[in-house]
Amino acid sequence: MKTIKVVYPLSNFIQENSESCVMALGFFDGVHLGHQEIIKTAKRIANQKNLKLAVMTFSPHPTAVIKKGEQVTKYMTPMAIKEKIFKKIGVDILYVVDFNIQVAQIPHDQFVKEYLYGLKCKHVVAGFDYKYGFKGKGNMTQLQFDAKGQFCVTTVEKQEKCEHKVSSTLLRKLISSGRVEDVPTYLGKQYEVEGILKRNRNEYTLHIDSNYFIPCSGSYEVAMIIGDMVTKGVCEVTSNDLPGQLRITTLYGDLCKESSPAQLHWENFIADFDMDVFHAQAHLDEIELSMLPQ
């Protein structure tokens, strides 16, 4: 997979050396089940048309630049992790657009002309709620007009699980409230982070990208994976933790002698430090229903 960083203004060199492709559009934080459906659809079309499969994403998240509403500054999949996932899926070209105030001000039709048609895009695939261009005036309906017949457009409809829209926003809410056990329903797997596990006597610290989105303070059951070895442990998250560091206590076995690449899977919430029985285990309305006389 080739990763191509795109800065404003888009250079003639990148346009002239681009390859005809099917382009999947989105920020793709988490690469959840909804994102996977978009990329799977784009991949199927690319195979049918014998074209390269391309993905266009942005860095940083647009809300960090536009600063309107809730800002996303931490990620379930920092860029290096996102690249690994895309490569495993079979993406041929990853375009990473450096999102800044100049890019945010590009009119929707100009964005299509330069960043899609200009990169030899022959077919675009995106989710039903995808927006682009200045003030998000471009949407999937507008894209049909902005394409001007120069490429095809496929819209992937809303993906739902348990009557909830599968979205990065929902996943961040689950993680930020400690409900890590609910994440696989929408992500397709347990939430995981990876880094370098270091041992200091009987204690372990996982050093991770400081841009990772971490669950709220509390104690969590986790699984640690080092190569072919998997062991259970407890990760305690506190407000005093240093950025990019997680403390893990293993339930059995030695994980490493000094340091090793490792993955941490968040499996279950155990308790927060105030022992709040409501926290992260069920919605309040669910708990209230369970307390009614049977």
Provide a concise account of the structure shown:
It is an enzyme of class 2 (transferase). The protein is an alpha/beta fold and 294 residues long. The chain has two domains: 2-158, 3-Layer(aba) Sandwich (Rossmann fold); 185-286, Riboflavin kinase-like (Elongation Factor Tu (Ef-tu), domain 3, Beta Barrel), CATH 2.40.30.
In the CATH hierarchy, the architecture of the largest domain is 3-Layer(aba) Sandwich
Assembly annotation: single chain
For the record, the CATH class of the largest domain is: Alpha Beta
Helical proportion, percent range: 25-40%
Mean pLDDT across the residues is 91
| CATH fold type of the largest domain | Rossmann fold
Looking at this structure, what is the CATH superfamily of the largest domain?
HUPs
Strand order of the largest sheet: 1-4-3-2-5-6
Structural class: alpha/beta
Main β-sheet: number of strands, strand sense, barrel status? 6 strands, parallel
General form = elongated
Number of domain units: 2
Radius of gyration: 21 Å
Helix-strand topology string:
EHEHEHHEHHEHEEEHHEEEEEEH
Kindly state the number of beta strands: 14
Protein name: FAD synthase
Keywords: ATP-binding, FAD, Flavoprotein, FMN, Nucleotide-binding, Nucleotidyltransferase, Transferase
InterPro entries: Cyt_trans-like, FAD_synthase, Riboflavin_kinase, Rossmann-like_a/b/a_fold
GO molecular function: ATP binding; FMN adenylyltransferase activity; riboflavin kinase activity
